[in-house]
Amino acid sequence: MRQVLCQNKGNIYVQNGCRAGAGNSFLSLSLRTSTIIKQSFTMFNRRTRISEILKMEPAEQQVTVMGWVRTFRNNQFIALNDGSTNHNLQVVLELGKFDEELLKRMTTSASLKVSGTLVASLGKGQKMDLKAEHVEVLGDSDPEKYPLQPKKHSLEFLREIAHLRFRTNTFGSVFRIRHSLAFAVHQFFNDKGFIYLHTPIITSSDAEGAGEMFRVSTLPLINPPLTEEGSIDFTQDFFGRATNLTVSGQLEGELGATAFGDIYTFGPTFRAENSNTARHLAEFWMIEPEMAFYDLEDNADLAEAFIQYIIRYVMERNAEDLEFLRMRLLDEEKQKPQNERSELDLIEKLRFVVENKFERITYTEAIDILLQSPAYKKKKFQYEVKWGMDMQSEHERYLVEKHFKKPVIVTNYPKDIKSFYMRMNDDGKTVAAMDILAPGIGEIVGGSQREERLDRLTGRMDEMGVSQDELWWYLDTRRFGTVPHAGFGLGFERMVQFVTGMGNIRDVIAFPRTPKSAEF
Ligand code: ATP
Ligand code: MN
């Protein structure tokens, strides 16, 4: 049944029609509904979101909205936005009804509280207007100084005013989708019975080798205490040892998995890598599930189901925002030469990913495909292709964008280019690793089956110069009831990039941290 907003003695409530003269059963239902709704309105914030209003029928309801002016024209029409949707609500000010002084304050980004009646719109482009009865300026905005004028701005410029860019349609859509993705991550794992484990952000293990680390220290920068050998004496530091910001929660995640069975982490990770690319941040969010009693294939199955689930969730919840971003991307791609444009638009691409199985190949097969490729034969690759190499982004992109045209799970990499904890395969040359490569992004997931055999693990640590002493706690999981287990890490921002079609990772995190940049 259609629900409408009603107002009675200043209280707004939702019910199935505004006249209370219907039969008893209806009355009791509406009373119950109205009580619940009333409680959820606070004294000041008695407002209805524009996203909710736009779903209603303009049946002369009274509503109060609050938001920011996008535009004001003809001294009469305000396009009001409250961040719940990219659609503005058109507020109509009857000519002559409002003070000249008040009208002058209807500038871009001024914040307003407007009460009035929803009526069918006379204009094109919107279903309904809010006929204003009461308008209050909550905060003025000086049009001479406001940096975000209502016109098209470059993404680069908007990065410089990241504190205001949420107020644009593009970033409105991106961050509503980012929220939905984060919510879907928790929903997926919760439904599967995983435990959300909070792993530490400050760590003392520098053995992992996932990337360069940021040091955490309270020692003075000038004249720090030194050891007899002349190096910095971290025993005098805050934690009594050298500490860093975490590059991954995996090792601690494995401790959780070998007790709870299935865990996941979802938290910030830090890498002091000086790579200025469109897919690397110094601070990014990572999701790391870790599962006991899983082999590599189980791991790949889970990763695939997970990615499809969170994309499907957004396709259902954020259809409007995706449509906006689809159009934005089409527009952006018009600047590119024909052969560089995508064959599928954003929504077609997402639909393709949720409806089709990911391709699965081994690293060795991937190298063969590259060696047989026209690109290789025409010497189009900048980097050499040979078995044993770490695939470069150009190779990954060739595989997913040109050859398979879909996400690809590459498994069983040479042991020398992967971490010490990955399980050694019987060939003695490769490990049970998997990367998932996505069109336009490259690596989106990195994972593996973990080495559960203590002797193999310590052997690899010695070979790779990883200290057994430091990781004594990690090795204990292999000493006391070790089990086959596996896990992966998904870079959250790369996922948001994939779903929103944003080309630069700086545009899918609120306040990006990159080399030489930590404003806001
Ligand atoms: P890449 O080769 O792209 O640098 P990686 O091999 O260093 O990735 P992992 O250590 O396996 O990546 O990390 C797991 C996931 O975290 C990656 O698959 C990717 O999605 C994401 N990721 C890694 N580094 C970054 C970064 N600097 N910024 C954002 N996301 C990242
Ligand atoms: Mn890296």
Structure notes:
This protein has 4 domains: 1-32, no CATH class; 50-139, OB fold (Dihydrolipoamide Acetyltransferase, E2P) (Beta Barrel), CATH 2.40.50; 169-212 and 247-507, Bira Bifunctional Protein, Domain 2 (BirA Bifunctional Protein, domain 2, 2-Layer Sandwich); 213-246, no CATH class. The protein is α+β, with helices and mostly antiparallel strands. The model is unreliable at 1-43 (pLDDT under 50). It contains 15 helices and 18 strands. 36% of the residues are buried. The structure holds adenosine-5'-triphosphate (ATP) and manganese (II) ion. Residues 210-211, 271, 273, 280-281, 284, 286, 443-446, 489-491, 493-494 line the site of adenosine-5'-triphosphate.
Task: Describe this protein with a few key phrases.
single chain; 520 residues; alpha+beta; OB fold (Dihydrolipoamide Acetyltransferase, E2P); BirA Bifunctional Protein, domain 2; 4 domains; eight-stranded mixed beta sheet; five-stranded mixed barrel; globular; disordered N terminus; binds adenosine-5'-triphosphate; binds manganese (II) ion
